[in-house]
Amino acid sequence: MPPPPASPSVLQKAKAAYTSWFAIVENIPKSHRYTLGGKVEQYFLELLECIFTALYLSPEKKTGRLESAISKLDGVKFFAQLCWENKCMSNKAYADLSEKLLELGKMIGGWKKGLESKLSEKKTPAQKLF
C-alpha cells in the first residue's frame, strides 16, 4: 500500500500550529478552557477548514477563501494573546505558538499575493483598465 500523498506545506504548517495549541489547551485553567480557550479553538478549526477548502477551489474562488483564512488567523492570534495576557499559557508556549502563526501568516499571504498576480496576468489589457 503506497503512503498517503503529502499535504501542501501551508496545510502542514497550519496543522503543526494547531497541534501546538492542542497541547497548550490542556494546561489552561478550567475556568477559561471552554470560554477563551474555546474561542481560540473555534478560530483555529475554521482556519484549517479555510486552508483545506482553498486547496480545491478554482483560482478565482481561492482569493476569497484565503481572505477568510487570513481573518481567521487574525482571530487565533488575538484570542491567543488574550489567553497569554490573562496568564492562561506560559511565555514559552505563547512565543512558540506566535512564531508558528507568524510563519503561517506569511505563507497564506504569499499564496494570496501570488494568486492575485497570476489572476491579474490573465486579464487582457482592456480588462485591466476597468
How do the helices and strands line up, and which of them pair or pack?
Blueprint: H1 9-25, H2 30-33, H3 36-54, H4 59-85, H5 91-122, H6 125-129
Q: Helicity range of the residues?
A: over 70%
Strand tally is: 0
Radius of gyration: 17 Å
* Number of alpha- plus pi-helical segments: 6
How do the SSEs run, as a string of H and E?
HHHHHH
Q: What features would you highlight for this structure?
A:
mainly alpha; single chain; 6 helices; 130 residues; elongated
Tell me what you see in this structure.
With 130 residues, the chain is mostly helical. 80% of the residues lie in helices and 0% in strands. The chain has six helices and no strands. Helix 1 runs antiparallel to helix 3 (36-54), helix 1 (9-25) runs antiparallel to helix 5 (91-122) and helix 3 runs antiparallel to helix 4 (59-85). The mean pLDDT is 91.
Outline of the structure:
The chain has 130 residues and is mainly alpha-helical.
